[in-house]
TrEMBL record:
It comes from the Bacteria. The chain crosses the membrane at residues 20-42, 62-90, 102-129, 141-168, 180-199, 205-228. Keywords: Membrane, Transmembrane, Transmembrane helix. It comes from Rubrobacter tropicus. Signal peptide: none annotated. This is DUF4386 family protein.
Length: 232
């Protein structure tokens, strides 16, 4: 390969990585939306609902739960692909925002572990509900562990969101309003996560986290489409 071709090859690799990051972001958002639509559409209980309601739902909606928890096997690799490919893209663009991208990678790895725990405990709840006539202490404990893991996942998502938003902006990949969206949405997630005990006990504070979570999905789609089109 001639030296003259090297800049063109480097530019081609950068464009390819940009589209990978964008595609992973859009795919992740789409998968998460479908997953949550299954939960909402099947009438999933809130953490503050009576245990009898929680038991009845999980005993009667095995199929919906199988789809919803199965989608997490898609979400986790897409999340890790997004944050790691983003780090590589930031490095190729001169390294501006590299520290924020490292934060996104570290927080994203932590988030993946926590979401794995969220889904694993949810699977345990579904399996425990099969054949139970009424909630047992063990069933209650598993449900509470599931709620606690979800509450602790919120600040990890907030850190991932802020790191990714600041990294993409510093690298010239996104517009200023996308940075503001990331900081605002990530801060809401961290704020909600600080009330993890209350959220696990069914507090409406969870809706602060839900707002931050929705902001994350919007940011993923807007940023992902921008990168797929090669803008930035």
């Amino acid at each position: 390969m001639s030296e003259a071709a090297t800049p063109a090859v480097a530019a081609g690799n950068r464009v390819s990585t940009t589209r990978i990051v964008g595609g992973a972001g859009v795919a992740l958002a789409a998968s998460v939306v479908v997953q949550n639509a299954v939960f909402v559409g099947s009438g999933a209980p809130a953490y503050g609902d009576p245990l009898g309601v929680v038991l009845a739902y999980h005993a009667e909606n095995w199929g919906a739960m199988a789809v919803a928890v199965g989608l997490e096997a898609v979400n986790l690799p897409l999340l890790l692909l997004f944050v790691t490919a983003l780090y590589g893209l930031v490095q190729r663009r001169g390294g501006a925002g590299a520290d924020w991208s490292r934060l996104a990678v570290a927080a994203g790895a932590t988030l993946s572990a926590l979401f794995a725990l969220v889904i694993a405990t949810h699977i345990a709840v579904v399996l425990a509900a099969d054949g139970l006539a009424e909630p047992t202490p063990a069933f209650k404990l598993i449900w509470q562990l599931h709620a606690a893991a979800f509450a602790l996942a919120l600040p990890a998502l907030g850190a991932t969101f802020i790191g990714a938003a600041l990294a993409t902006h510093a690298s010239g990949l996104t517009r200023p309003w996308q940075r503001l969206l990331g900081v605002a949405g990530g801060s809401l997630l961290i704020l909600a996560g600080a009330g993890n005990l209350a959220i696990a006990d069914g507090s409406p504070l969870v809706f602060v986290g839900v707002l931050g979570f929705a902001t994350w999905l919007v940011w993923l789609v807007v940023t992902g489409l921008r990168l797929i089109r090669g803008q930035g």
